[in-house]
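Hi V.,

You were right to ask for the full record rather than a summary. Here it is.
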Amino acid sequence: MTDSQNRPDKKWRGVFPATTTQFNPDGSLDVVSTLKHLDVMLAGGVHGFVMLGSVGENCSLEKEEKLEVLRAAVEHVDGRVPVLSGVAEYTTDLACRYAASAKEAGVDGLMVLPAMVYKTDPRETVVHFREVASATDLPIMIYNNPVAYGVDIKPETFVELADEPNFTTIKESSTDPRRITHLRNLCGDRYQLFAGVDDLVLESLILGIDGWVSGLVNAFPVENRLIWDLAHADRWSEARDIYRWYTPLLQLDTLPKLVQYIKLAVAECGYGSELTRAPRLPIEGAERKEVLAIIRKGIETRPNPADYGV
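Predicted structure:
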């Protein structure tokens, strides 16, 4: 790992999967399958990885398991694309210690969440993120997802945080694409802006995002990259057609059981297992039938990238 890879001004851009963590039938880590899945997504053209985010079941892993996943991913990817780690801990002190450990594991950056369970007020939120930044010199993507985590980091707060050089990127998952324009108007190009809601990505691309942290890319990496490339080639009509095909699948990323749904899609595509750790259980009955119908229709009708010449 070179010093330049850890500089706070390191730029991230493009499609970054929030990767799944694969498990064996006994619930233990399946690192080999996790790495094979990374290879599938690298072959699909992704630009980076976020390990141990929400989709990676961060809060279901012990610390040593998390570090095992990180060390293996960093070694396996070997600098081909950036590897980030989610930081989702119950206290600020735990988040600081984990951030330091993640750096020792060799990651290129962090995606930091608010403290888990307790919902901080704006003052506490600012202190939490500043304390984590003080514990590392790695570049940090701040993850704003008030829908899932109950803490809304407003654009005005990002103005307040702009004096911290480690804060390089915002993953905006408020479900309000207007935030992208508000952030640009308030902060200019101070932050790289990443979309974090799969079924709002085309709207976000039009508004000028730098990247996309995606869940369904775990099952459809080529299609994610295709939308990205078409949008950046100003081929909006074609990008819109693919987006319309993709939207029923992308909406699975916005639901409470997104981890189970995404892992089921990964399994249906032959890239891994749907196994999760309790309390998450495999979906069943009518719910399973409905989700499988969406996934299988998507697989059957997926676009052919060769038709688009990108």
